[in-house]
């Protein structure tokens, strides 16, 4: 029997790679988006819905999908958009959980972020599931709301049959808005200085393969 997937955030950097990987693995893919993209992926079934519109989610999500991949999030770091971000990342996740339960999705894979472990570590650390997460207390709204959304999923983990993944900094092909902007500035000698810091990076294709 063919495995079926429902992917949110399907037009984003990771979401597009995830849809491609699922198709390569012979999954039947339904990709949720707010508007149908011009550069569609052949074979993917695109459906329009909004995380803040519960009725549209129920309509878009097929019954009994093998796995729901929640990769959508508002990643903005501009504080003036905090209210919108909070609604999308928290209320949107709650709406999707309700839809998943009503439509009897068999599994939920939640794409969270490494930032839920905090962003103020000094020096390199090794993270395991036993390391306390500090994101709930962050002053960065993106970090805080991603942490809250992850906790909401964990609270429903048994009913959702949920798995949470926390990717590090994602880089790779087709990046249009993330780290590529900084890399281009460095290449073009447009960055006056490089601040001290460190991080862990992962290829988007490796994240999609999971």
From TrEMBL:
<dbReference type="InterPro" id="IPR001509">
    <property type="entry name" value="Epimerase_deHydtase"/>
</dbReference>
<dbReference type="GO" id="GO:0016616">
    <property type="term" value="F:oxidoreductase activity, acting on the CH-OH group of donors, NAD or NADP as acceptor"/>
</dbReference>
<dbReference type="InterPro" id="IPR050425">
    <property type="entry name" value="NAD(P)_dehydrat-like"/>
</dbReference>
<dbReference type="Pfam" id="PF01370">
    <property type="entry name" value="Epimerase"/>
</dbReference>
<keyword id="KW-0560">Oxidoreductase</keyword>
<feature type="domain" description="NAD-dependent epimerase/dehydratase">
    <location>
        <begin position="6"/>
        <end position="209"/>
    </location>
</feature>
<dbReference type="InterPro" id="IPR036291">
    <property type="entry name" value="NAD(P)-bd_dom_sf"/>
</dbReference>
<protein>
    <recommendedName>
        <fullName>NAD-dependent epimerase/dehydratase domain-containing protein</fullName>
    </recommendedName>
</protein>
């Amino acid at each position: 029997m063919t495995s079926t997937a429902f992917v949110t955030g399907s037009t984003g950097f990771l979401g597009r790679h995830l849809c491609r990987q699922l198709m390569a693995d012979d999954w039947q893919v339904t990709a949720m988006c707010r508007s149908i993209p011009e550069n569609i992926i052949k074979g993917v079934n695109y459906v329009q819905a909004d995380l803040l519109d519960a009725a549209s989610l129920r309509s878009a999500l097929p019954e009994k999908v093998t796995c729901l991949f929640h990769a959508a999030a508002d990643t903005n770091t501009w504080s003036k958009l905090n209210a919108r971000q909070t609604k999308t990342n928290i209320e949107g996740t709650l709406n999707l959980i309700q839809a998943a339960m009503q439509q009897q999705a068999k599994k939920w894979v939640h794409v969270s972020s490494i930032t839920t472990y905090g962003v103020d570590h000094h020096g390199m650390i090794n993270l395991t599931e036993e390391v306390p997460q500090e994101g709930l207390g962050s002053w960065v709204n993106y970090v805080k709301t991603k942490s809250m959304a992850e906790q909401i999923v964990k609270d429903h983990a048994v009913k959702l049959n949920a798995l949470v993944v926390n990717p590090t900094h994602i880089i790779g092909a087709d990046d249009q808005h993330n780290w590529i902007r900084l890399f281009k500035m460095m290449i073009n000698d447009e960055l006056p200085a490089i601040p001290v810091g460190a991080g862990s990076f992962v290829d988007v294709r490796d994240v999609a393969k999971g």
